[in-house]
Write a structure and sequence with these properties.
single chain; 4-stranded mixed sheet; 4 strands
């Protein structure tokens, strides 16, 4: 049972990361046992992965995506696809302690790109981004992390514990909607960022608080979902122009509070210039407005689980203190 406290907590993040890898280990062990006689090639391919995980190892984000591909193939009875997926998992890289920043479509991101394509399909909203279109963004991203470290250390450590890889991407040509940042529950440890939407270190710090908040919720959803509303139901979202399922509204509302917390903490930290401080205060006001819009929809239409209610109650209690 994890704490549902609203404030960032680096130890909780470490525990979440440990449990995500532990769950992956247990599930892969179950698969190897089940496939031992009927599909021994899968069992053999997964042996080195389990050995690495058994030594308290951590795997790169594509391993989590590939796990979902493997389970879907097994459930569908597609043995050839399952063997191929298990073999890809056998080559999964260890998670680096360093922050990995890569461009979607670049030669050094091929393995993850292929894993993303298998999970997200051809209609993915994350299109390749040539490095020459945003060559300086990795430096700006590090500056945003450094700002969190200097002005909001606990959020920095929580974020860096969860996030170990950032993929820089853009919306497909002609897309009606363009993302600024995104996370995906099947790729633990990964953030997508669109460089054209983040021009300053403060803007980067805010989007990190935003997307890390989504990842935190993904980690806390281990035992039950946040809401029980059907996926087919759609509602107005505080952060999107298109109607969204209640789970999306819930996420947007929670991360709005997290962004307000980040901006207000940084504004009072002494780590910002006078101009940045004014910008942070303005951003926090907007984040609070978005929270108010979102929580109104959640209260009116949301059918929250017990854990979902506790998490959101704690976020709302912090908002009401300010």
């Amino acid at each position: 049972m994890f704490s549902y406290a609203f404030a960032p907590n680096a130890q909780r993040a470490r525990d979440l990361d440990r449990v995500r890898h532990s769950d992956l280990t247990h599930s892969l062990k179950h698969i190897t046992d089940s496939c031992h006689s009927a599909l021994p090639a899968v069992t053999a391919a997964l042996a080195p992965v389990l050995e690495r995980l058994g030594n308290n190892g951590r795997l790169a984000t594509e391993a989590f995506g590939e796990y979902y591909t493997l389970t879907e193939a097994l459930l569908a009875g597609d043995h050839a696809a399952a063997i191929q997926s298990a073999q890809r998992l056998s080559r999964a890289e260890a998670r680096s302690d360093d922050l990995i920043i890569r461009y979607r479509g670049a030669a050094d991101n091929v393995t993850l790109d292929h894993a993303l394509d298998r999970r997200l399909g051809e209609d993915s909203e994350f299109a390749p981004l040539p490095q020459e279109e945003a060559p300086d963004f990795p430096e700006l991203l590090h500056a945003g992390f450094d700002l969190l470290r200097d002005g909001f250390e606990e959020l920095y450590h929580e974020t860096r514990t969860i996030v170990h890889q950032v993929v820089l991407a853009q919306a497909p040509e002609g897309s009606k909607l363009e993302f600024d940042g995104a996370s995906h529950f099947q790729f633990w440890g990964l953030l997508f960022l669109n460089p054209r939407h983040h021009k300053t270190r403060l803007a980067v710090a805010e989007v990190l608080a935003h997307e890390a908040g989504h990842s935190l919720l993904f980690g806390l959803m281990r035992d039950e979902p946040l809401v029980k509303n059907p996926e087919s139901e759609r509602y107005s979202s505080p952060l999107r122009i298109d109607p969204r399922p209640m789970e999306g509204i819930y996420h947007a509302t929670f991360v709005s509070a997290r962004m307000a917390l980040a901006m207000e903490t940084l504004a009072n930290s002494g780590a910002l210039t006078a101009a940045e401080r004014a910008e942070a205060q303005q951003a926090a006001e907007k984040d609070r407005e978005n929270f108010a819009k979102g929580i109104s929809t959640v209260h009116e239409h949301g059918d929250m689980t017990d854990s979902g209610k506790q998490i959101m109650d704690n976020a709302e209690a912090w908002i009401n203190q300010g």
